[in-house]
Amino acid sequence: MSDKRWLMLVVVLSLLVMSFAGVRAQDEAAIAAQPCDEPGALTMWVWDENWALVIGSAIEAWKADYCPGAEVELQVQPWGQYWDLLKTNVAGGDLPDVFNMSQDRFFFYAGNDALLDLQPYYDEAGVDTSLWGSGMIDPYRWGEDGDLYAGPVNWDTIAVFYNKDLFDAAGLEYPTADWTWDEFADYAAKLTDPEADVYGAAVYSEYQTGYPNWIAATGTTPIVDAGRTQCTLTEPGSIEALTYLKDLYDQGYMPSISILGGASADDSFNFWLAGKVAMVAGGSWKLPAALEQATFNWDVVKLPMNPETGRSRSIVHSVGYVASAWTEAPELAANLILYLVSDEGQKFFADAGGVAPANPAMQERWVESFGETGVNIQTFVDALQDSQGVTVFDEIWDKINTELVVNIFDLGMSVEEATQQACEFIDTQLPQ
Amino acid sequence: MWNVFLNQFGRTPLTRRKALWGMALVAPNVLGLMFFFGIPVLMAFATSLQQWNAIKPPVFVGLDNFTRLAGDAAFWQALGNTAKLLLLTVPVEIFLALNVAIMLNQRLRGRGFFRTLYFLPVVTSTVAAAIVWTWIFQPRYGLVGNLLAPLGLRDQPWLTRPDLVLFPIAAVTVWQRLGFDMVLFLAGLQAIPRVLYEAAIIDGARGWQRFRFITLPLLSPTTFLVIVLSVISGFQIFDQVYIMTARTTRGGVGGSATTLSYFLYQSAFVQSEFGYASAIALVLFLITLGVTAFQLSIQRRWVYYEAGER
Lengths: 432, 310
Known about the structure:
CATH architecture of the largest domain in chain B: Orthogonal Bundle
Structural class of chain B: mainly alpha
Largest sheet of chain A: 6 strands, mixed
Radius of gyration of chain A: 22 Å
Low-confidence stretches of chain A: 18-29
Strand order of the largest sheet of chain B: 1-2
CATH class of the largest domain in chain A: Alpha Beta
CATH class of the largest domain in chain B: Mainly Alpha
Mean pLDDT of chain B: 90
Number of domains of chain A: 2
Number of helices of chain A: 19
CATH superfamily of the largest domain in chain A: Periplasmic binding protein-like II
CATH topology of the largest domain in chain B: MetI-like fold
Distance between the termini of chain A: 25 Å
Oligomer: heterodimer
Structural class of chain A: alpha/beta
Strand content of chain A: 5-15%
Order of helices and strands of chain B: HHEEHHHHHHHHHHH
Distance between the termini of chain B: 36 Å
């Protein structure tokens, strides 16, 4: 075994241990908010209106209980233009004091020293950052000491949403958490009905919901390794997962991207909502939409296990709050972020019943916030146990989410050729 | 001093006063143009000589961005795609617009209604239109797929296949510009004196001859204007590509739908290379300028101005 492999093994093991630690911490650990030293004015950007409502009430509570006299100007910049606007603002030398960050974009801003190091503030407040679990916060660590630069606000994991009515019609039993890829393929075959224009499954689309989960289940880190030094798409695990999925597509059990109308996870999910596909991979953020819009009976189940590794793995993503390195009130910005990730601040997210709060102490409360649904929502929390953090970054996002999947699942290119092409491009984008 | 300046605008106090008024009235627009257009253009020129990712301080690199551009296969591909789109759109657009204009220049019931109908796409947001066209080209459930189903052309991935993707983009572009060209042609047609047609009829000229020897030559200044404007806007095709490939390939598989404007956008907002993107913008400007200057230089060969002024 080469040194690199040893290192990988150690990293994987420690990730495992840490994620278990994170789950266990649910009972005991808590993050306490602290009073601010000096009130002042902050600007803040978020990309979601629903969020803005939740955060708005959280900020009101923060101002009332911890920082009387503080002013926060909260702005919603819609997702479609959020990142372009942020870049143009950066170009103008002007960042909001506090803003939403995603793991794949963090690299760019941290790499250019635009973000405030929050680690000293966590240390001062006595927060044990390991309680969040690795998948959620490792992508937000930066620098030699692995300082944490973000406050994780929420997380989402992936599971299979399935249409119970279609299962009933085909006379099939509902899947359980211990199912394997083989059983999944079997279900997909039996649920496909070309006459009725119904497909068995749609599970390959877009980074977080799509094929990378299947690659992760083989034990390979999807797309690029954690250190962002090499493309992993041509490794055996990636080839195995993509070949498995392409077989399902070639057999006609999964629709092509053109039929779905797009390569995004939403396109697949809408197809499922329309009753045209029986099983779809979907994120926990889709729960409200499914509860509201699905006109059939449905439930969620864990992603199936790879038969060799016996692992079912979900990509976990955590949206974070970061502060600008150029803010005039770093202490205040850090104090607000601390509040938003604390037990008190996270209650607002837990009760809103949308995306799940990052604070482990709040997860049960989040599951309960949905009320009696008959849906196994706990499966998304369970998926955290063996989860995979985000390693991809902005510059390769389009290539792997659109071109790679279009080549394989629309234009019929072989997995080997498509992954080779993708890796050639990714290699040019990796930091030297 | 002041008088010397004023004398530029005319010799009598009246013409001077008129000139001053004129300047005062256009001042808001000129100032606006200078601040929101002129200054950014100058800044873009400066940026094109720098390496700048928008966060770190810019570094002066001289003409590096331009030499890199010359050797960048992606740039030449984008230029090729833009040229293909120009060839796919401009002739079709002008042919259709001229026909529609001639049709709607005749006495016709509901003429105003039809003119409005043809002009509607011009004032429709490109983004909204492109989204609808994306549905039209959806291979299984879309209109195009269903129309072409008898020919066995259902399930064609129009928007992902590298050799097909430019056609839907060209279709939207033509559809959207048609009305604008039509209006220009209509104005041109109505400026042609009726007496010429009457004289021609008396001389026994048939319909085609009247069109060929009266309409076409007298319309040539309008045709010239339409061609120049279409080519300029053709170089700027962006929204259609952005929207129609947003849900699938984002600029086409292997850049097959990437136009110069889209290439510029990607360099700036995906790759964070603002210096390089500014260089692309400048080159795009120079190419457009060059093509337009070329068109101006050959216009005297075919554009006929009635009053004899050339």
